[in-house]
Amino acid sequence: DQQVKQNSPSLSVQEGRISILNCDYTNSMFDYFLWYKKYPAEGPTFLISISSIKDKNEDGRFTVFLNKSAKHLSLHIVPSQPGDSAVYFCAASGGGETSGSRLTFGEGTQLTVNP
Amino acid sequence: EPEVTQTPSHQVTQMGQEVILRCVPISNHLYFYWYRQILGQKVEFLVSFYNNEISEKSEIFDDQFSVERPDGSNFTLKIRSTKLEDSAMYFCASRRGRYPYNEQFFGPGTRLTVL
Fold it and tell me: What does the alpha-carbon distance between residue B89 and residue B2 come to, in Å, rounded to a whole number?
């Protein structure tokens, strides 16, 4: 199942700089996208989401950009902090109220923010 | 802040035994999910549950799996006869409602080890 793909297994950035995590999808029925952060031995923690009717959503240090024509989304973290070090998952759903709400996850990207 | 809880945190069982994983979703949420993550693999959707019935299930969710909401607070996943390949982290998630409340909130997970 390669419908959601995160091509970078890891990313390392310096504290205070921008982190950019990328995600590509193939299923054109996806209309809602989410980013989750996960620490070892914990469940995914919701970060930010975006509907396909938008191209940008911002929440504090986190901004998600959606490029529907390219079937690509990205998560920007500015400024990056050491506490942001975690695995970040991109997920997508096909919308709808009941059917189609399942999340399809990417492989995850391990972000390391160095002090 | 309300959160999804799961018990037990770790379950060890013998192949062929039945296990029940328990979850308490966020109290005003209406949609409930189970996902699993086999070590080194993606988080995978198992089943969604709404209005006291399964609304969607994946090909993984075969006859050995069942879900139940026995009362107003608990949501359980039963695996009737466990196999070695059922060893994974199992995550419960809940969602408040329809758009724009599409975010799914995850519990900390139950690590199932089948020997």
Answer: 22
Instruction: Provide the CA A57 distance to its chain's centre, in angstroms.
Output: 12
The structural domains of chain A, ordered by start, are 4-96+103-114 (2.60.40.10)
Domain containing residue B39: CATH number: 2.60.40.10
Give A72-87 as a DSSP string.
Answer: EEEEEESS--GGG-EE
Q: Tell me the pLDDT tens digit for each residue of A63-105.
A: 999 999 999 999 999 999 999 999 999 999 985 444 458 999 9
CB contacts < 8 A (A, B): 72
Domain membership of residue B25 as a residue range:
5-107
Residues of B whose CB is below 8 A from A99: 55-56
Closest CA of chain A from B102, distance in Å: 8
CB within 8 Å: B109 and A43 = yes
